[in-house]
Amino acid sequence: MSVLQQIIDAIAADFGDLDNPGRAATVCFRLFLAAVLGGCLGYERESKGKAAGLRTHMLVALGAAVFIMGPQLAEFDDASISRVIQGLIAGIGFLGAGAIVKGKPGEEIEGLTTAASIWMTAAIGVTAGMGRASTAILSTVLALVVLAAMCGAVGWLHRGNGHGKNGGSDCARDDGNEP
After folding, report:
1. Which of 5, 39, 56, 129 has the most C-beta neighbours closer than 10 Å?
2. What pTM was estimated for this model as a whole?
3. Residue 27 has what DSSP assignment?
4. 156 lies in a domain?
5. Ramachandran bin of 100, using left for φ above 0, alpha for ψ from -120 to 50, beta for the remaining angles
6. Cα–Cα distance, 113 to 144 (Å, whole number)
7. What residue ranges in 45-143 does DSSP mark as E strands?
8. Cβ neighbours of residue 132 under 8 Å, at least 6 residues apart?
9. Is 118 helix (H, G, I), strand (E, B) or coil?
């Protein structure tokens, strides 16, 4: 076997994770699902004028799915995949912390809901990457209910307590309009 053939065989082996059409379709579907579901949460955040929007949430979900699928495709054992998930959860915590802003003393802390949505997006990406599409979709729907539908309830509760038009929550857009 020539050196060139050895190089070609070595490179071809790196594409062995998608060795049949069924596996390739599964990988494509899981990655696509993670990106779309992350995009749903990101669109909601972006529509409220938050810094972490559509692209950020899509990339977080997609990245989380890849972090799960890579070890699965390499046939890691469950304990190893569990450690990957633990590292992912901790790492996403740092990303979420970057979304949290504390102003001057007495001002409200901003970005907590965006940080939580980033964390939730990673969880949805992990779930999609593990091949649990129904759970990932249901989780996304419930997260959207919390982010969108609960704004009205929170605003209503706060207005009753004299906290103003949008209740001090992040439900209002940055321009001061209701969502």
Report:
1. 129
2. 0.81
3. H
4. no
5. beta
6. 12
7. 101-102, 109-110
8. none
9. helix
The identity of residue 132, as a single letter, is R
By the 10 Å C-beta count (0-12 exposed, 13-18 middle, 19+ buried), 10 is classed as: exposed
Residue 5, domain member (yes or no): no
Residue 114 Cα distances to 46, 60, 87, 97, angstroms = 10, 13, 20, 10
**Cα–Cα distance between 88 and 130 in angstroms, integer?**
14
Burial environment of residue 168 by CB neighbours within 10 A (0 to 12, 13 to 18, 19 or more) = middle
**Is residue 2, in this structure, part of any structural domain at all?**
no
Q: What is the pLDDT of residues 29-43, one digit of tens each?
A: 999 999 999 999 999
Instruction: Write out the E strands in 69-127.
Output: 101-102, 109-110
Listed in sequence order, the residues at least 6 apart from 56 whose beta carbon sits closer than 8 Å to its beta carbon are: 42, 118
How far apart, in Å, are the Cα atoms of 152 and each of 111, 138, 140? Answer: 19, 21, 19
Q: What is the pLDDT of residues 108-151, one digit of tens each?
A: 788 888 899 999 999 999 999 999 999 999 999 999 999 887 77
Q: Please tell me the total number of residues recorded for the chain in this structure.
A: 179
Distances (CA, A) of 80 to 70, 73, 75: 12, 13, 10
d(Cα 123, Cα 136) in Å, to the nearest integer?
8
Q: Which residues span the domain enclosing 31?
A: 23-150
